[in-house]
Specification:
By secondary structure, this protein is α+β, with helices and mostly antiparallel strands. The protein is built from three helices and two strands, in the order E-H-E-H-H. Strands 1-2 form a two-stranded antiparallel ribbon. The radius of gyration is 15 Å and the shape is globular. 11% of the residues are buried.
């Protein structure tokens, strides 16, 4: 089996947050489109990421931004 090595630079470190100028450790991986739609203020280290890695602080902001949407979704299947 052939292993491909990727150049590791600080922009693409898999253990750090994907938000520009943030060097905090990773907490969650989420869809780039979902996060960009919920919190358009975030600026990414790479252009149009498919998956984004968020630290604890940025994940908390994402959760606050999607709170109403998640509540409505839960109401549809709760009886």
């Amino acid at each position: 089996m052939v292993e491909f090595r990727r150049k590791k630079d600080e922009k693409d470190d898999p253990d750090l947050c994907s938000v520009k100028d943030c060097q905090e450790p990773l907490k969650r991986k989420l869809s780039g489109k979902a996060v960009a739609k919920a919190v358009p203020d975030f600026r990414w280290k790479v252009k149009n990421p498919k998956k984004v890695r968020l630290c604890k602080e940025h994940y908390k902001e994402y959760k606050k931004a999607t709170k109403d949407e998640r509540k409505l979704e839960r109401m549809s299947w709760e009886k």
